[in-house]
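Lab notebook, bench 4. The sequencing result for the construct came back, and we need a structural model before the next group meeting so we can plan mutations. Quick request posted to the team channel:

Model the 3D structure of this chain.
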Amino acid sequence: SLDDTLPKFIAEAKLTLRQEGLMNKVVRKVTLAKGSGLTYNVPTWTAVTVLDLVQGVDLAQAQAVTDSNFAITVAGIGGQVFFSDLLEMSIREDAMRFFGRALANVYAQAFDIDLTEDMDSATVSLGGAGTTMVIGRLQAAANRLAASNRPVEGLLSCVIHPFQYHAIAQDLAGVSVNGRWVNTTGTPSIVRSYGSSVSGMSEDIVTNYWKAKFAGVDFYTDRNIAIDSSDDAKGGMFARDAIWAVSYEEPSVRTQRDESMRGVELNYVGTVGSGMYEPAWAFELYADASTPS
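Done. Here's the predicted structure in token form:
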């Protein structure tokens, strides 16, 4: 045997990455200027009305206008990796780049999870625990948003768990070779091609998460939507301005040397916050998300 003589080949290390999700791409984003404090406030005035007038009678019914405040508090989130001088010298990878990418990945996922949880703040929940996600429920949400008393602001998006989308695909039957869902009775055709509303998004987001466009709504799947102990999950359909994501700046990566530990701390930190601005501009989609078989 020549085990001690033959060289050993070790391939380049691979990162264990997580799905970053896409919620940050389909909600209203606000970047705060330096010195803006820790709470972002959005005042909203009540609607006014008009009256039928009578010729010669004074219009003397002044309306009272009140305001309400929507507030989002931002806070820091981040992670740290420590690598020793010995580790950096002994591995072939660029430790700074390697672990920086890992921290950026898990940071994006953490914020995406926060945003998926905001869908639970919608005024109305459609479906329920143990129910199957069906196309009719999505039609109902889209039509009710279109008929909202206060006109919705921003593009409409639907974000559900991939297992829930599997149920919808089954509900709609098969897909033909030209990329269109096969029509069944009462079911409109859904085009599975890139829509104009996603042209400004990065190609990887479109490729990995965008699924279809139906009734003016772009459909996405997000693995970061939590599945509870009963195999149910809460997705949502919402206007862009229904959910707001607030941050001070893009997260930054900084290093700090620890001489006594003979290594470097790699810190990835950002300041973010999120919340549901207008619950009436969103519908929670609550349904079973059991693993497909």
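Residues 1 and 72 are 67 Å apart (CA to CA).
Will bring this to the meeting.
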